[in-house]
Amino acid sequence: MNAGIEALNVYCGVAQIPVRTLFEGRGLDTDRMGNLMMRNRSVGLPFEDPVTNAVNAAKPVVDRLDAAGRDRIELLITSTESGLDYSKSVASYVHDHLGLPTTCRVIEVKQACYAATAAVQMAVAYVASGVSPGAKALVIATDVALVDERGLYAEPATGAGAAAVLVSDDPRVLTVDLGAFGNHSYETLDSARPTPTFDIADSDRSLFAYLDCLSNCFENYRGRVEDVDFATTFDYLAMHTPFAGMVKAAHRKLMREFAGTPPAETEEDFTRRVLPSLAYPSVVGNLCSGSVYLALCSLIDHAPLDGGARVGLYSYGSGCSSEFFSGLVDRGSADELAEMRVGDHLAGRCELTFEEYAALLPANLKCLVPEQDKRIDVEPYEGLLARARIDRDLLVNTGTKDYHRTYEWLSYE
What we know:
This protein is α+β, with helices and mostly antiparallel strands. The protein has one domain (4-410): Peroxisomal Thiolase, Chain A, domain 1. The chain has 14 helices and 17 strands. It has helices spanning 19-26, 33-36, 50-63, 67-71, 90-98, 115-129, 203-224, 244-259, 263-273, 291-302, 331-338, 342-347, 354-364, 382-387; strands at residues 4-11, 15-18, 40-42, 73-79, 105-109, 136-143, 161-168, 174-185, 191-195, 198-201, 236-239, 309-317, 321-329, 350-351, 373-375, 394-401, 404-410. The longest helix has 22 residues, at 203-224. It is globular and about 60 Å long.
């Protein structure tokens, strides 16, 4: 039975800042920009939060379904490290504002940047089991950034937004190779979000954990799937992208360990099999658990998919848990994803000056803090919205009323 991704979309806000602008504004060493391999990063506005990001990513996916298709969404899973409550899930708000059926299971999962892949695999297993023929599942990875100058070189690499993944038995975007996966997990504290106002990170520990998990995940994958050759089995690769330069290092490590290729061949292989997946992440930043699906979007939109192709995907989440899995894409995948116009969305974000960016941070850093009563006005940011190219209605957070978050739609159609 086929199962996999029927539709895929990402929402990365309406604003961005060039990485060079951020480096210069913070007085960071611009010689280190080459290591990041990034050009821009998405920046949330004070009326954007995990709910608005999730809904704005998923609405175009849901709106393309007819009434019968929407009614077959039986499972909604949000993955986030930007939770709003210790009990109530982000998914409950998302379920309401997407108008999904009341018969839908609604849950939230958490494991840093890995959680969405765990949710996708749960959804694929549910669909492939056949216990509810024709069922669909909607997985939405959604996060906000809580970084400022304390983040040092992590600040220019941290993005914000959401990826919406519709799973079904009609996998028009990616047919998952059922049973072909490898996992590796253990306890470590390489990064965390202990309060709703800031992140902590041990960059070196995280780097080594990412690479260690990648090797072990692929080794576990090889143990499950016969005749796997890292250099030839996968036509393309899409990986969790904390920053694009990290993926280049990860590819180099696997080529050295599992293919034994010399540096020149490794560079050519990176350009051919990996670089298409980095076009979008390099202008967004780390999308947390949506990162690997942003990379998949980038790959499908930029690789020459004239025939069928197998993609190897790697998902890593601090703490840590990880997975290497695979699936098939083709020309139809590109045609299907083109309907979402991801490239146009990213190109349409307004560009912030460093002064505008710095002025947004105090409100952004309080985005997840619970307040009994709060009003967020969109009016002060209408100038930024006017500079963006927006062609879809947007959900915005208008504040809280007795701790209950309130939202409204801005019309752009």
